[in-house]
Specification:
The protein has 143 residues and is mainly alpha-helical. The chain has helices spanning 10-13, 21-27, 29-38, 63-66, 83-112, 118-133, and strands spanning 16-19, 44-47. It has a domain at 1-68. The protein has a two-stranded antiparallel ribbon with strand order 1-2. Helix 2 (21-27) crosses helix 3. The longest helix has 30 residues, at 83-112. The chain is elongated, with a radius of gyration of 20 Å. The protein starts with 9 loop residues before the first helix and ends in a 10-residue tail after the last helix.
Length: 143
Amino acid sequence: MRDGFQIPTEEFENLLTPLTQAEAREINPNYYDKIKEVFSDARFYSCKALSEDNQCTLENMPEFCRNFPCSPLALIPDVCGYMGEVFVKNEELKKRIRSIKEEILDYETLISAGSKDSKAYKKIIDNLQRLVDKYSDFGSNDW
């Protein structure tokens, strides 16, 4: 996991069966629409290890599954039991991004005041802005 995002392992990917867009929408239309609104090219899958009552049938659940939801930006169905946890993580991420934006403003103020370290400050601002931009698809520019 890096920066809150997990990279699926081959073990995890081998558990998946691709779904057509129609199949995915039929399973949960609200969730399907939610995903497609953010990721228009999203692909959907079904897990081979789920029982009829959506319980994992594996003796050793893959780490990818154990760590779900891996990101504060996880898009989950509205009735998911992780909704509260994702909301709290999302708010923590927004707070972190706002703090980074405040730091950018502080450096910009120092630059505009004619600081002798302007060049170094601009480099710091660029690095901080990259962190903010990383979440721009999720609205970080408005946080």
